[in-house]
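Many introductory courses stop at the sequence. We go one step further.
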Amino acid sequence: MARKIVITSGKGGVGKTTVCCNFAVQLARLGFRVAVCDLDFGLNNVDVVLGTENLALYDLLDAVEGRCRPKQALVRHPRYPTLYCLASNRVSERYISPQAVRLVLDALSSQFDFVLIDSPAGIDEGFHRAASCADEALLVTTPHISAMRDADRVSGILKSYRFQASGLIVNLVRKDLARKGEILSPDEISTTLRMPLVAVIPEEDKFFLDNISERSRAFRTLAELYGNEGKRKFGWFGRKEKSK
C-alpha cells in the first residue's frame, strides 16, 4: 500500500506545489511508483508544473462523481513512466467530502509506493480535506516571518491529526543571509515550529548555476531519505525489487 503524504503550507507562494512535484520526480527517478494528487481545487496547477495539462481525459472530480474509474483519471508522465498525475478541477460552490476523495485514493493505493497530496495553503476546508486523506505530512515554509507565522498555526493543527510521521521543508533558503544572521537558519525554524527538519531547499539563482544544481541535489536527498525510510519500515517495496 502507498504511503499517502500531504504536502501543505500556511501561506501561499512558498513553493509548496513546486516542492511536491520535484519530490515526486525524484522518487520516480529512484524507481518508485508515484501518484501526485492535486487537492487544491481553487488554484490547481500540479498538472501544469508536471507538464501533463493537455493529456488528461478525466480528473479527480470525475472519479469522485463516478464518471470514470479512479485509474482512468490518472495521467502517466511522458518522461518518467512510474510517475502519474491526478489532476483536479476548479470547484467553486460544490462540496467535495473528504470521505469521497479518500475512497478514490484508497482505490489507487495498492498500485503505488507513494501518493503525494498537494494541499491548499492555509487552514480552511480544503486543507482539512487533504490532511484527512493522508497518513503523513510535510509542511513547507520559507524563512520569512509572515510564512513562518502561518506555518506555526498549521503545524499546531497537523499535530491534532496524529500522523504516522511529519516533517518540515524550508524552501528558498539564502545561505549567505543565514550565515549573516539576517534570517533564521533552517535549524532555528525547525525549533521554532517544533517540527523535525527533513529538507532545506536553496533559492534558485539564475545567475549562479550552482544553486540550481543544489536544488536538484536537495530534492534527490529528500527522495532518498523517504525511499530508505520506506525500506526500513516496510521492506524494499519499489519497482527495482520487482525487477529482480
